[in-house]
Amino acid sequence: MSPVTLSFDGNLARVMIDNPPVNALSKAVHVGLLKAARTIASRCDVTAVILACTGRSFVAGSDIRELDDPQPPYLPEVLTAIETSRIPWVAAIHGTALGGGLELAMACHGRIADSSAAFGLPEVTLGIVPGAGGTVRLPRLVPMTQAIEIVTGGKPVDATSALAMGLVDTLSQRDLIAEAEVLAKGLAAEGPGPLLLTRPPRDVAGIDWAKEEARVAARFRGATAPAEALASLRECAELGAAEAMARARARFLRLSTSAEAAALRHIFFAERNAGQSLRATAGQSVDLDLCGVIGGGTMGAGIAAALLLSGSVVRLIERDALAAEAGRARIAAAIETSRQRGVLSADAAQAALARLSVGADYAALVACPLVIEAVFEDMAVKRAVFEQLDAVMPPDAILASNTSYLDVDALAAGTWDPARVLGLHFFSPAHVMKLLEVVRGARTGPRALATAGALARRLRKTAVVAGVCDGFIGNRIMAAYRQDCEAMLLQGADPAEIDAAMRGYGFAMGLFEVQDMSGLDIAWARRRALAAAGTPSMSTISDRLCEAGRLGRKAGRGWYDYEDGKAKAAPVVEQILAEESARAGLVRRDFTQVEIMTRILRVMQEEGAQILAEGIAESASDIDVVMVAGYGFPRHRGGPMFQKRVTR
């Protein structure tokens, strides 16, 4: 059965796409649309066409799985048949019109949208550019500055913005299809106007293309697709429509087979397949409309804010009333930041804070089906919290620890029912970062795992399941390559060289820049705790920096010296490196950036392979998701395990 149906109501034709779940443009949809366009063109009695979709969305993009083996008819042929029709087509848009879906809508002669619709050309996030005229049609509907942001940034715009910039003609007030019919009949009465491609691009005179190229290069750190997309827009401004269309198509076809596109498709599917065992669990999640959080520091406040933003009622517990009010202030600040970013309205922010209560009595948590502790990363402190929870919480409550390293099994062992205990490793800021490591203990039960999966969906996070070990997946890999980076420091590299190599590969920041930003004292405290337990520190250089009070940016000095917020090489660090190299009997030598990144990748991959062999991660692609979503590994590289596969 075709995913495209054609029906007639008097002089009106209705073309309906039904290709769940998101009406992706597959070959079958292309065939159906082209057949419908040709049938309509042959009918003398048809005066207008409504194009709409069933389900929750308009066309949310092309079928990514078909990029590797495209088959005719291709989308440009379909769009040309619609755009050159003597009969006006009107797109009735609800949900999302993304990628090929927006290109399809732009090929229509009119566009009406539901007020909650969203529009975008996110192809750059897959390492390609719009392949069916998006970079040529869009600037003829909206000003070029807005087209540049939409195409190079890849982020969608809402319906109100789309209307203001000219991307849609009107917004539906009540009945989308009925109002689309009114628009279509109006276009039919007016007669065919000039084709969109005959119009000039809008507001291109003031564009400084060199400046835009520099901005895009700096923003996307080594990814080529955004720069290619900008080049396609520039061709739209400087060439005729036909030539610009031909060049955009050629660029799309070339990029479709690039290593970058392969890496981005890999991580796209890896994120969607992450946490398979959470989907397969037979358990039922607890109700997440009411949740408890213990600890109102940076992590606890972020977790509470994430829950509040998802619509949950949150009860925050701290050690005393003063600390609880400080936690409330941190949560309020996080929500205000989200409001300023446009994530929610002022009314929604106020409503979120109204769902928060704070206190110091664990009895307030008794009604919470899920409680997440986010206290200091110390086993004794966390055990004390779990002992109190175990004493007051009902037997069906799920108890979770936001821990970055600690043994979840040891925490669970102190409770009467370890099946209800698991780890939930959030990443800071917890209300922004999309990754959630779900730590499954040896006795964690299906109900707890189902709750973790439901929580991730509610918070719109990507969940990856990890087993119990020191650092789980991400922190364990980071600890391994951090140790090797310190070994390179002893052998002759300096922090700036290693950081530059990582930035050159595509990381936003290098390892030592990150350490200075987050503070060296946190890891130092952990190393001292491990040393007290009999595990000697392997980070002698870091230890010496901390002992000298070089704790990072907050101290004005760490791996680098800071003046007016700017980092510069620190002679003291150079002296420490020279002394430690001599103490180890090493002759310092030069390192190339390629050599540095080759070593970092090798260590990541070796540690990842060991994590897989131990059953800590469920798949190699899950490791890639963790490193990309949580640790800054460049998305356009696909992840360390993907790189291992493609460079064999």
How are the elements arranged and paired?
Layout: E1 4-9, E2 12-17, H1 27-41, E3 48-53, H2 75-83, E4 89-93, E5 96-98, H3 100-107, E6 110-113, E7 118-120, H4 134-141, H5 144-153, E8 157-158, H6 159-165, E9 170-171, H7 176-190, H8 209-220, H9 225-238, H10 241-256, H11 259-273, H12 276-280, E10 290-294, H13 298-309, E11 313-317, H14 321-340, H15 346-354, E12 356-359, E13 370-373, H16 379-392, E14 398-401, H17 408-413, E15 421-426, E16 435-439, H18 446-459, E17 462-466, H19 474-491, H20 495-505, H21 511-518, H22 520-532, H23 540-547, E18 561-563, E19 566-568, H24 571-583, H25 593-613, H26 620-631, H27 640-646
Parallel strand pairs: 2-3, 3-4, 4-6, 5-7, 6-9, 10-11, 10-13, 11-12, 13-14, 14-15, 16-17
Antiparallel strand pairs: 1-2, 7-8, 15-16, 18-19
Helix pairs in contact: 1-2, 2-3, 3-4, 4-5, 5-9, 8-9, 9-10, 11-26, 13-14, 14-15, 19-25, 20-25, 23-24, 25-27
What would you note in describing this structure?
- With 648 residues, the chain is an alpha/beta fold.
- It has 3 domains: 4-257, Alpha-Beta Complex (2-enoyl-CoA Hydratase, Chain A, domain 1); 277-466, Rossmann fold, CATH 3.40.50.720; 474-615, N-(1-d-carboxylethyl)-l-norvaline Dehydrogenase, domain 2 (Orthogonal Bundle).
- The strands form 4 sheets. Strands 12-11-10-13-14-15-16-17 form an 8-stranded mixed sheet, sandwiched between helices. Strands 1-2-3-4-6-9 form a 6-stranded mixed sheet, with helices on both faces.
- Helix 13 links the parallel strand 10 (290-294) and strand 11 (313-317).
- Helix 1 packs parallel to helix 2 (75-83), helix 20 packs across helix 25 and helix 25 (593-613) packs across helix 27.
- The longest helix is centred in the C-terminal third of the chain and has 21 residues, at 593-613.
